[in-house]
Amino acid sequence: MMSDEYTEEPPVARVPTGIDVSVPSVARMYDYFLGGKDNFRADREASEQLSAVSPGSRAIAVNNRRYLQRTVRELAHKYGVTQFLDHGSGLPTQNNVHQIAQSVHPTARVVYIDNDPIVLAHGRALLMDNATTTVITADMRDTEGVMTHPDVVKLLDFTEPVAALFVSVLHCIPDSDDPGALLRRVVDRLAPGSFVVVSHLVAEDPEVRDRLTAFMLDATQGNWGRVRTPQDVAGYIADAGLEPLAPGLVEVSQWRPDGTKGPVPESTEWIEFGGVARKP
Ligand SMILES: C[S@@+](CC[C@H](N)C(=O)[O-])C[C@H]1O[C@@H](n2cnc3c(N)ncnc32)[C@H](O)[C@@H]1O
C-alpha cells in the first residue's frame, strides 16, 4: 500500500510520496521502540512481534540510542571533535547528534545519511534553520558517492579529523556487501586523528543469530543484513587499522556509563556491541 492511499493514520501527511508504509522499515521500527510517532501500523506490529520473539528488543534500542548520545558528547567534549558523518542516522528523535555536538561546539558540522527517504523528509523540517547540519538520502555502501556528495563536501573538511558514526547500522549490510570493507573504505578517506563509532547487533549463540536474522529479513522483505558475533565486529575495527578507546568494544551500556540508568533488557541473547576507535 503506497502512502498516498494510506489514510488511516495521522502522520501520513508527512510521508513522502512513494514510500510503502505497509512494509516495516528499520528506521520506523527503531522510531517505534524509542517512543517516536513517525511509524505506521506495519512497523508497530513488526516491532511487537520482534519483542515477542526476543523480549528485550526495545531496551536494546533505547540503550543503543543512549550510547550514541554518550559517544557524541564524549567526542565533542573530551576529544574536541567538531565534524560528524552519521551513517544510517535514523529518524530524528530527542537529543540528535547535531544537538549534542552543537551544545558543546555551536558551529559543529553534522551530516546525516540514511537510505530511507522518510528520514530526509523529517530531517529537513528539523534542520530548516541549522546552517551547519544537513541530511542526505544515500546508500552508505556507495562510499565514493557519499564522500563526494556536494552537501557533504560543503560542510565537512576531510583533511581534518571527523567522527564517522556507524551506530546500529552495519548489521543492515549483508555479507555480500562486506561491512568490514565498507568501514575500511571510509576510514581510508579520513584524516589521522579521526574517530569511528560502531555498534552492531551480535549474539554468541548461532541459533539466536539465525533466528533473529531470519525474523528481520522476513519483516523488512530482505532489506537487512545479519546478526553477527562480537569477534566479527572486533575484526572490522582491527582490519580498518583503528585503535579502540577505553573501555574497548563492549555491550554498549557499558561504554563510559554516565550514571543515568537505562532500561534493563529482559533478555541478553542478543546485544548491541561496539565502541569508539581512533585512526592513528
Ligand atoms: C536502527 S537505525 C539506527 C539509527 C541511529 N544510527 C541510532 O543508532 O540511533 C538504522 C538506520 O540505518 C538506515 N540504513 C540501513 N541501511 C542503510 C544503508 N545501506 N545506507 C544508509 N542508511 C541505511 C536505516 O534506514 C535506519 O534508519
Query: Which blocks of ≥5 consecutive residues have pLDDT under 50?
Result: 1-8
Give the tally of β-strands: 8
- The helix count comes to 10
The tally of structural domains comes to 1
Q: Helix fraction? A: 25-40%
Give the N-terminus to C-terminus distance in angstroms.
49 Å
Question: What percent strand?
Answer: 5-15%
CATH homologous superfamily (4th level) name: Vaccinia Virus protein VP39
What is the quaternary state of this protein?
single chain
Helix and strand pattern: HHHEHEHEHHEHEHHEEE
CATH class: Alpha Beta
* Spatial shape: globular
Structural class: alpha/beta
CATH architecture: 3-Layer(aba) Sandwich
- Based on CA atoms alone, the radius of gyration comes out at 18 Å
Instruction: Estimate the mean pLDDT confidence.
Output: 93
| CATH topological fold name | Rossmann fold
Give a quick account of the main beta sheet: strands, pairing sense, barrel closure.
8 strands, mixed
Small molecules held by this entry:
S-adenosylmethionine
